[in-house]
Structure formats: C-alpha cells, structure tokens
C-alpha cells in the first residue's frame, strides 16, 4: 500500500491526464488547533470526487461545493484561509481558535507530477517548488529537511522516503514490519546473508541485500533519519549490525528478544569497542508493550515505538511494564519485549 501523499499525487495525475479539471490542495500553515498537519494534501476533481484530506470534512465540503459551482477555474495558484473568525472556525469544524491556510493549484503537465512520481518510485528524495505568481514548478534533488516550506511566494515540498529502515533478517516478522513501514514512508532495506530466507521475499518496493550486516551498515553511512532493527535471533548476525548501528547517529536501534536475552546481548556488546552510552541506546526488548503475541501485533508494537521516537515523543513505559512484557512474550514464544 502506498503512503497517503503518494496516493493523492497518483490520483491527481490520473485525473488530470484523463482531461478532468483537477485541483491539488496543500495545507501550508496552521494556527492554534487544526485537524490535519502542515503538508497534508487532497486532490479534487471537477465532479467533486476527492482523495486525501485537509480537515475533518467541512473544508473539503466547502471546496467541493465551490468547484462544482465553477469557481477556481483559472490556472493561477491561490491561497485560501479558513477559520479566521470564531464563527468561521465553528462552521468549518475547526477546534476553538483553529485556523489553517491552503494553497490550491490546478494540476496540469506544468505541475511535473509524472517525473516527481517516477523519482519517488525509484526511492529518490525530491524537492518540488511551486512559484505562486507564475504557477511554474521545478524539481530538484531533495535533502533530509522539513517536509514543507512556504513564504507566500513559493511552496516547497519534499517527497520520497525521508526515512530509511534497515531490517536485519528476512523471516516472517520482518515481512510484517516492512509492510507497515512502507505506509510510513520509509525506504526499506532487508539484509540477510542466508539467501534461502530472501528467496521467498514477497514485499514489493524493498531493497534486498545478502551482505554481512556490519558491512552493510558501514556502507550506508547512517544518519539521524535512519533506523535499524535486528530481527534474526542469531547473535552472529544481530550483534554485528548492532555494533555499528549503535555507534551511528541512527535515531532508533532495536533488537528482538526477551529482557534476559537482551541483557546477555548488552554484555556481549560491552566486550567490543563500544561505549556504555552507545550500548544504552539499544531498544531491547524492542517495541512498545502492547501485550503483542503474534508477528503482526509485534510489528505494530515496534513501529509504534519507532514512530514515537521519530516524532520526538517520549515513550513513557514503566520498568514494571517492561518486566511484564518480557514475562508474557517469553511464555508465548514471541520474544520481542
């Protein structure tokens, strides 16, 4: 499954290519409480069909009504602001004090959506710049930065896999983790020197590697937009990856296994050239304690914790909860923590 933004852009291109008048709406600013964050996108066809969302529904309804009535027919991008007054905020279902601003643009060949989507599907990071005065769009190689910048004259958006996830091991759990991570805009690399595990891999859009895990981690030169998961249960493979990943700026490094197994893992890591502070970065047992038992549930727990870390939200789990997770998963045979 594609991410929400990718689905919106694909739909915008399809509708425009079919000859239908198509408008792309992007949330560029919010004040106070807003139902959707900056960067949220929605595409609207002339008959009122929509994909994506910019609010809880009321703003969508207003845009659909106006477009069906023949408004916004010119090709110039425009800025729309909703919720300026308390009455308007109430009318459009915005929380008290909430205001949001949208850039509305007409989709055409000038929008450069086809080359943008081609680049994203090749796992490239791309910056799209819309000039509001002329409607001209330029594409350039992207960089790890904020997803959107807007100064009333230019709208700059970043598209593509802004985060990278390296999964060590290609067994069943890795498939569920990769499937969920695709929806969260990760570039995914699965590493397993055991070629028989990779032979049956069936998740599209994932890079596969038979390199030794430590060699791969060193080659990738991880940065703060990277995460590493060691999921093989084989210390010879997991520990090799962790030794290099924990010394990198990766925002998340986790390893599957019970609390007891991860304690032993930390003892093994301490025998090598790695500091106590670096070892302390290891998330093991990996994932939030959700009472997960099956591989899909464990994958959800892992991605939940990664998402919290990625968004800068403290993971407030008590030591007692961790203890309970270790006991529960050990008894069920699912050793994630």
TrEMBL record:
Gene3D superfamilies: NAD(P)-binding Rossmann-like Domain (3.40.50.720). InterPro entries: MoCofactor_Util/Proc, XdhC_CoxI, XdhC_Rossmann_dom. Residues 15-83 form the XdhC- CoxI domain. Transmembrane segments: none annotated. Residues 165-306 form the XdhC Rossmann domain. It comes from the Bacteria. PANTHER family: ALDEHYDE OXIDOREDUCTASE MOLYBDENUM COFACTOR ASSEMBLY PROTEIN, MOLYBDENUM COFACTOR INSERTION CHAPERONE PAOD. This is XdhC family protein.
């Amino acid at each position: 499954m594609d991410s929400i933004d990718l689905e919106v852009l694909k739909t915008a291109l399809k509708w425009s290519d079919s000859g239908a008048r198509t408008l792309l709406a992007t949330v560029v600013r919010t004040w106070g409480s807003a139902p959707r964050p900056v960067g949220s996108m929605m595409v609207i066809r002339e008959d009122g069909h929509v994909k994506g969302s910019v609010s809880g529904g009321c703003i969508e309804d207003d845009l659909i009504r106006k477009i069906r009535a023949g408004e916004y027919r010119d090709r110039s991008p425009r800025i729309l602001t909703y919720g300026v007054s308390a009455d308007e905020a109430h009318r459009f279902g915005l929380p008290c004090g909430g205001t949001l601003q949208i850039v509305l643009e007409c989709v055409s060949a000038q929008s450069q959506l086809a080359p943008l989507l081609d680049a994203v599907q090749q796992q490239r990071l791309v910056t799209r710049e819309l000039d509001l005065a002329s409607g001209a769009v330029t594409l350039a190689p992207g960089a790890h930065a904020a997803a959107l910048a807007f100064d009333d004259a230019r709208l700059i958006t970043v598209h593509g896999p802004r985060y990278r996830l390296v999964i060590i091991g290609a067994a069943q759990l890795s498939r569920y983790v990769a499937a969920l991570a695709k929806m969260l805009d990760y570039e995914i690399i699965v590493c397993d020197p055991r070629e028989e595990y990779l032979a049956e891999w069936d998740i599209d859009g994932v890079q596969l590697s038979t390199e030794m895990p430590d060699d791969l981690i060193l080659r990738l030169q991880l940065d703060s937009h990277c995460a590493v998961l060691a999921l093989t249960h084989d210390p010879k493979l997991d520990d090799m990856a962790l030794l290099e990943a924990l010394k990198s700026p990766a925002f998340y490094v986790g390893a599957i296994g019970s609390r007891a197994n991860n304690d032993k893992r930390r003892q093994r890591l301490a025998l090598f050239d790695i500091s106590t502070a670096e070892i302390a970065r290891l998330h093991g047992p990996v994932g939030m304690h959700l009472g997960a038992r099956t591989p899909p549930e464990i994958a959800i727990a892992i991605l939940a914790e990664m998402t919290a870390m990625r968004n800068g939200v403290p993971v407030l789990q008590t030591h007692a909860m961790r203890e309970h997770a270790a006991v529960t998963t050990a008894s069920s045979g699912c050793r994630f923590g």
